[in-house]
Specification:
- The complex is a heterodimer of chains A (about 575) and B (about 425).
- Chain A starts with a helix and ends with a helix.
- Helices cover about 35% and strands about 20% of the residues of chain A.
- Chain A folds into two domains: about 180 residues, Penicillin-binding protein 2a (Domain 2) (Alpha-Beta Complex); about 350 residues, Beta-lactamase (3-Layer(aba) Sandwich), CATH 3.40.710.10.
- Chain A has about 575 residues and is α+β, with helices and mostly antiparallel strands.
- The radius of gyration of chain A is 33 Å and the shape is elongated.
- Chain B has one domain.
- Chain B has a three-stranded antiparallel sheet with strand order 1-2-3, covered by helices on one side.
- In chain B, α2 packs parallel to α15.
- Classes of the chains: A alpha+beta (about 575), B mainly alpha (about 425).
- The interface between A and B is large, with 39 and 46 residues.
Chain lengths: ~575, ~425
C-alpha cells in the first residue's frame, strides 16, 4: 500500500465518504424539523372554494345578474406528448393558440405551470376535446364560477360589474374579511351591496401531488353562497327606457312618486358588464375607454338644468307673494347693467303674465322674477326641493350637484352677487348643476299628494340562501315640501298646460294625464335637452326625468322620449288588466 | 470454457464480500424502485437484475485477459453504436440515448465506458508507466476524446465527463505524475477561475494564469510542452463563452443555479429537482417515514425519482440510517474493487480494475451529491440502485470483471 495512486485514491475516498455522511447528518438530523416543515408545506395546500354571488332580481323576479359555471382550457406543458398535434387540434376547434405555441417554443414557463389557452370554452369545443381526450395528454379543462348578466347592457349602470379587488379597496376592507384576489363588486348595486352578495368563501386543505391533483382531503369548509338582492327596478320599463334613449347620450330616471322606488335608471352610452368577468380583449377594452365615457353614470352626474329650473323659480316667486297675474313684456331680449339677456324666442312673446311665461318658458318673464326674488330665497327654494344635496340613493359615486349662493360666490370668487347672476340662475344657467336623479326626485315630490320628498332607493329586500329576509327596505321620507298647497297646485296646473299647449306639446298623448316642463341647457357645442314630468294618470304612477346630452331644444327630443314611455307603460297596464 | 484453464478451485479467490455488497445494493434498489409505485418498472428491474447476475457469473469465470485481443474491435463497435444512436436512436427527456432492440432498449453509452476501460488498459500496459510527456499522453486522450464528443452531442454531459474521469484515473494508476494530472485538468480550472470565483473575472483569471506559469516553471517541462499547456489554458478561458453557448438552456441553468442559488430562491424553476430532493431527504430524519410511506415520494414530487433521484426516496423513507448504510455499502463495494486493483498481479488487471473503480466511484459520488444538494444536477444513475436495465447489467458486468481479475490473479504464479 505504498504506491502513490493507491494512497491518493484511498485518501480521496475517505474524504468524500465523510463529506457525504456529514451532509446527510446535517440534512437529516440537524435540520430535520426544518425540512419536515417544508415537506408538509409543499404537499398540502388550501384550495379555496369560491362562494357564488347572490342573484340580483328586479321587482318582478327577473334575474338581472347571476352566477354561471364556465369551462376554462389550460395546458400543462410537462404532460404534453406531441405538442404540435395538440396545437393543431386546438387551432382546429377554433382556439387562438399563437401565444401558447410561442411560449412552448421558447420554453417560457415554470415546471408544472398551467398555461391558459381559453378562458371560456363553448359546449361544442368541450365535447370535441372530451372525445379526443386520449390524444390530448396535458390538456386540462377546469370549471370556475363567473358573474353573468343575461341582459348585458340593459341595466349596466344600476347593476355595475365585478372584478378583482384593487389595492386601495383592499387596504380599506381587509378588516372585513376581504382578501387579495377576491372578486368584488366594483360599481353599481354589485358594489353597494357587495357584503351581502359575496357570501363566505369556503376552502379545503388538501394533500396534492406534484401535478396539483388532490389526493386526500384533510378538512373542508363549505362555501356560503351570497344572499339574493331584490331591486325596486321594473326591468320592462328599464329596457324600454334604454331603447328609447337609443344611441343618444344621456340619462333617464323613473321613480315611483309615492315612495321613491327607482323603477328605471338608464345612462347612455353604457357598457356590457360581462366583459369584466372574463379576460377582456384589447378591442373590448378600447371600446370601453375610448369616446363618450360609457362607464360614467350620467344619471348621477351634475349638468346645468336650464329651463326645468323655472319650476323652482316659479315656486320661489309664488312663495314670495308675487302675483301670478303680474305681466311683463317680452321683446326677445332685455338689458341689465348694459348686458344683453336673450329669450329663446328671438321675436319675443309680447305681453305675458307669469302663468303664460311658465307655459311658454319665456326667459324674459323669469329674468324679471330673478330680479324680484332675492338670491337667498331662490337658493333656499332649490334646497327645499332637494337640489345641491346628494339624494343618498343606494348607488356609489353620486354627485350632489350644485346650487350657488351669495356667500359661496363671495368666498370663491371674492365677488359680490350681481343681478346678472340672479338672471342666469332664474332660468337654470350659470353655476347651477343638477343631476337627472335629483330632478326626478323633485318631480316626484310635486307628483305625490302629500308633496313629500322620498329618498330614492333601489333595494326592496335581501333574501338569504335559506329564504329568510335579511333586510326589508321601506320608503324613507326626507321632508315635506315647505310650500303653500295652492302654490304647488298652481305649479302642477301649469305643468299640465306646458304639455297641453306649451313647450311640451311633444309629450301630449291622448287619454293620458301628463304634467311636465321642458328645458334646454346652454352648452359649449350643442345644448342639452331636459324634460321632467309625471303621469300618465290623474294619480301619477311615474315621475320621469329625461336628460339628453347635446340633445338640442328640449321639447323636441326629451319630451318625445317621455311620452313614448308613458304610452308604453299605459299599454302594458291595460294589457295586464 | 476458460474456467478449466485457470486451474483447480477458482472459487477460492472469489470475493464474496464484493458480491454480497453488490447483491445487497441491488436488493435495496429493488425496494426503492418498488417504493415509487410502478409495478411494471419493478418487474423490468427484476429481469435486468437476473440478467445482470448471469452476466456477472459469466464474466467472473471468464479469463478477462482474453479481452486484450478484442479491445480495439470492441471500442470500434461501441463508437459505431454511438454514431448509430446519434442518427437513429430514440429520444427521451430531450436526449438521444437509446437504441431499441425489440422490446428492450439499450444505451450504447454504458458499453462505451467498458470498451474505453479495456482499450485504455491495453494502451497503458504497453506504455509501462512512461506517461509524462504530452506525446505519451496524447493517444490515450484521443481515445477518450472521440467518444466524449459523441456522447456530449447526445447531449449527455454527465456521461461524457465520466469518460474523462476514466481516462484521468486510469492514467494516474498507470503511472502519470500528479503534476501532469493537474496540468491536464488545468483548462477547466482556468474557466472556473474566470467565472466561478467571487472576484472581478479578469483579476482572478490573471492571478490564476500567473500561478500556472510559475507551476509550469517549477515542473521543469520542455519548453514547447509548457507552451502547449499555457495556450490550452488561455484558449479555454477565451473560448469558454463559445462553449457555454453551445450548452443547452437546461444545462446552463443547472450550473448557474448551483453556483448561485439566489437565481431561483423559491426553487420553482430551475432548482426544482435539487430543492425537492433535499427537502425529501431532510424530512426523512433519523429513521425515515417508513418504507412506502414517504409523502413526497408517493405524491411524485421529484421527477425521475426512480432513476437519478432514487437516493432521495431512500433518504425520505429509510432516514439517516438507511441513507448512511447505502452510502457505506457503496463505499465498501468501491473499497473491494480498489483492493482488487491494488492487488492485481498484472498491469492489465490493475488498470481495468482502476477504470471500473473510476466509473462506479464517480457515478456514486456525483449522484448522491446532486441528491443532497452538494453538486449540480447531472443525469448519472446511482450504480446498482437506480432503475435502468443497461446501467444495472453493465454495473454487474463491471463487478464480474473485477471478480475475474481477483480470481485470475494467482494463475501467473
Amino acid at each position: 500500500m505504498t504506491k502513490l495512486p493507491e494512497r491518493f485514491t484511498a485518501a480521496a475516498g475517505w474524504l468524500v465518504l465523510s463529506l457525504l455522511l456529514g451532509r446527510l447528518f446535517f440534512l437529516q438530523i440537524v435540520r430535520h424539523s426544518y425540512y419536515d416543515f417544508l415537506a408538509d408545506g409543499i404537499r398540502s395546500r388550501i384550495v379555496p372554494s369560491i362562494a357564488p354571488r347572490g342573484v340580483i332580481y328586479d321587482r318582478n323576479g327577473v334575474a338581472l345578474a347571476e352566477s354561471r359555471l364556465v369551462y376554462e382550457l389550460d395546458v400543462l406543458p410537462y404532460q404534453l406528448k406531441d405538442a404540435q398535434l395538440v396545437l393543431r387540434f386546438l387551432r382546429g376547434i377554433g382556439l387562438d393558440v399563437s401565444k401558447l405555441s410561442r411560449r412552448l417554443a421558447d420554453k417560457d414557463y415554470l415546471p408544472y405551470e398551467l398555461l391558459t389557452v381559453s378562458p371560456e370554452l363553448t359546449p361544442r369545443q368541450i365535447s370535441y376535446i372530451e372525445e379526443n381526450k386520449a390524444l390530448l395528454d396535458g390538456v386540462i379543462i377546469s370549471a370556475r364560477i363567473v358573474r353573468y348578466y343575461p341582459y348585458a347592457n340593459a341595466a349596466a349602470h344600476v347593476l355595475g360589474y365585478v372584478g378583482q379587488i384593487g389595492q386601495t379597496e383592499l387596504n380599506k376592507l381587509k378588516n372585513y374579511g376581504y382578501q387579495m384576489g377576491d372578486i368584488v363588486g366594483l360599481a353599481g348595486v354589485e358594489r353597494y351591496y357587495d357584503q351581502y352578495l359575496r357570501g363566505v368563501n369556503g376552502g379545503r386543505a388538501l394533500d396534492v401531488d406534484a401535478l396539483g391533483n388532490p389526493v386526500r382531503g384533510l378538512r373542508s369548509l363549505e362555501p356560503m353562497p351570497g344572499a339574493d338582492v331584490h331591486l325596486t327596478l321594473d326591468f320592462g320599463l328599464q329596457r324600454q327606457a334604454a331603447r328609447a334613449l337609443g344611441d343618444r347620450k344621456g340619462a333617464i330616471v323613473i321613480l315611483s312618486p309615492d315612495n321613491g322606488e327607482v323603477l328605471a335608471l338608464v345612462s347612455k352610452p353604457d357598457y356590457n358588464p360581462n366583459y369584466f368577468t372574463s379576460y377582456m380583449s384589447a378591442a373590448e377594452w378600447r371600446e370601453l375607454v375610448t369616446k363618450d365615457h360609457p362607464m360614467h353614470n350620467r344619471a348621477l352626474s351634475g349638468y346645468p338644468p336650464g329651463s326645468i329650473f323655472k319650476v323652482v323659480t316659479l315656486l320661489a316667486a309664488l312663495e314670495s307673494k308675487i302675483d301670478p297675474l303680474k305681466t311683463f313684456i317680452c321683446q326677445g331680449f332685455m338689458t341689465v347693467n348694459r348686458r344683453r339677456f336673450d329669450c329663446w324666442r328671438p321675436a319675443g312673446h309680447g305681453r305675458q303674465d307669469i302663468l303664460n311665461g311658465f307655459v311658454n318658458s319665456c326667459n324674459i318673464v323669469f329674468y324679471n322674477l330673478g330680479l324680484l326674488v332675492s338670491p337667498q330665497k331662490l337658493a333656499d327654494t332649490a334646497a327645499a326641493l332637494g337640489l345641491g344635496l346628494a339624494t343618498d340613493i343606494d348607488l356609489p359615486f353620486e354627485s350632489s350637484g350644485f346650487v350657488p349662493s351669495e356667500r359661496w360666490k363671495q368666498r370663491n370668487y371674492a365677488e359680490k352677487w350681481y343681478p346678472g347672476d340672479s338672471l342666469n340662475m332664474a332660468i337654470g344657467q350659470g353655476y347651477l348643476l343638477t343631476t337627472p336623479l335629483q330632478m326626478a326626485v323633485l318631480t316626484a315630490a310635486l307628483a305625490n299628494e302629500q308633496h313629500k320628498i322620498y329618498r330614492p332607493y333601489l333595494l326592496r329586500k335581501i333574501v338569504s340562501v335559506e329564504g329568510k329576509n335579511i333586510l326589508q327596505n321601506r320608503p324613507e321620507q326626507v321632508s315635506v315640501l315647505p310650500f303653500e298647497r295652492r302654490n304647488i297646485a298652481l305649479t302642477r296646473r301649469l305643468m299640465r298646460e306646458v304639455v297641453d299647449r306649451g313647450t311640451g306639446l311633444n309629450a301630449r298623448a291622448p287619454g293620458l294625464v301628463i304634467h311636465g316642463k321642458t328645458g334646454t341647457a346652454e352648452n359649449q357645442q350643442k345644448d342639452h335637452a331636459w324634460f321632467i314630468s309625471f303621469g300618465p294618470y290623474e294619480h301619477p304612477d311615474l315621475a320621469i326625468a329625461v336628460f339628453v346630452e347635446e340633445g338640442g331644444w328640449g321639447s323636441a327630443v326629451a319630451a318625445g322620449l317621455a311620452k313614448e314611455l308613458y304610452v308604453w307603460y299605459d299599454a302594458r297596464a291595460k294589457g295586464r288588466r | 470454457m476458460n474456467i478449466f484453464k485457470t486451474g483447480a478451485r477458482p472459487w477460492r479467490y472469489f470475493d464474496w464480500r464484493l458480491f454480497l455488497a453488490g447483491l445487497g445494493l441491488s436488493g435495496l434498489g429493488l425496494l426503492a424502485v418498488a417504493a415509487t409505485h410502478n409495478p411494471e418498472q419493478l418487474k423490468k428491474q427484476l429481469l435486468s437484475l437476473a440478467l445482470g447476475l448471469l452476466v456477472f457469473l459469466l464474466a467472473a469465470v471468464w479469463d478477462y485477459r482474453s479481452v486484450r485481443r478484442w479491445a480495439e474491435i470492441l471500442f470500434c463497435a461501441a463508437v459505431f453504436l454511438l454514431l448509430v444512436v446519434l442518427n437513429i436512436g430514440y429520444a427521451a427527456y430531450g436526449a438521444q440515448r437509446w437504441i431499441g432492440l425489440g422490446p428492450l432498449a439499450f444505451q450504447p453509452t454504458e458499453l462505451m465506458k467498458l470498451a474505453l476501460i479495456f482499450l485504455l488498459a491495453k494502451f497503458l500496459e504497453q506504455k509501462q508507466g512512461r506517461l509524462n510527456t504530452l506525446l505519451d499522453i496524447l493517444p490515450g486522450l484521443a481515445l477518450a476524446g472521440l467518444p466524449f464528443f459523441l456522447i456530449y452531442k447526445q447531449p449527455d454531459l454527465g456521461s461524457a465527463v465520466v469518460l474523462l474521469v476514466i481516462f484521468l484515473v486510469m492514467s494516474f494508476w498507470g503511472g502519470m505524475k500528479p503534476s501532469r494530472l493537474f496540468l491536464l485538468a488545468s483548462p477547466f480550472l482556468s474557466v472556473l477561475a474566470l467565472y466561478a470565483l467571487p472576484l472581478e473575472p479578469l483579476t482572478s483569471w490573471g492571478v490564476y494564469l500567473a500561478l500556472l506559469a510559475a507551476l509550469l516553471w517549477r515542473f521543469r517541462l520542455p519548453c514547447w510542452e509548457a507552451g502547449v499547456y499555457f495556450i490550452l489554458n488561455l484558449g479555454a478561458g477565451l473560448f469558454s463563452s463559445f462553449f457555454w453557448n453551445s450548452l443547452s438552456l437546461y444545462q446552463r441553468n443547472r450550473i448557474l443555479s448551483f453556483i448561485n442559488p439566489d437565481i431561483d430562491p423559491l426553487a420553482r424553476g430551475i432548482r426544482y429537482h435539487t430543492a425537492k430532493s433535499v427537502i425529501a431527504v431532510g424530512s426523512g430524519g433519523l429513521f425515515g417515514k417508513g418504507i412506502f410511506r414517504g409523502a413526497l415520494t408517493n405524491l411524485r414530487y421529484i421527477p425521475q425519482q426512480h432513476t437519478d433521484f432514487i437516493f432521495s426516496v431512500i433518504g425520505e423513507e429509510l432516514g439517516f440510517i438507511g441513507a448512511a448504510l447505502t452510502v457505506l455499502a457503496l463505499f465498501y463495494l468501491l473499497r473491494r474493487i480498489y483492493q482488487i486493483a491494488a492487488n492485481a498481479s498484472a498491469d492489465f488487471g490493475r488498470y481495468t480494475a482502476a477504470g471500473i473503480l473510476a466509473v462506479l466511484g464517480f457515478q456514486t459520488v456525483v449522484n448522491i451529491g446532486m441528491n443532497i444538494g452538494l453538486l449540480p444536477v447531472a443525469g448519472l444513475p446511482l450504480p446498482f440502485v437506480s432503475y435502468g436495465g443497461t446501467a444495472l447489467v453493465v454495473s454487474w458486468l463491471g463487478l464480474g470483471l473485477a471478480q475475474s481479475i481477483a480470481i485470475h490473479r494467482q494463475t501467473l504464479e
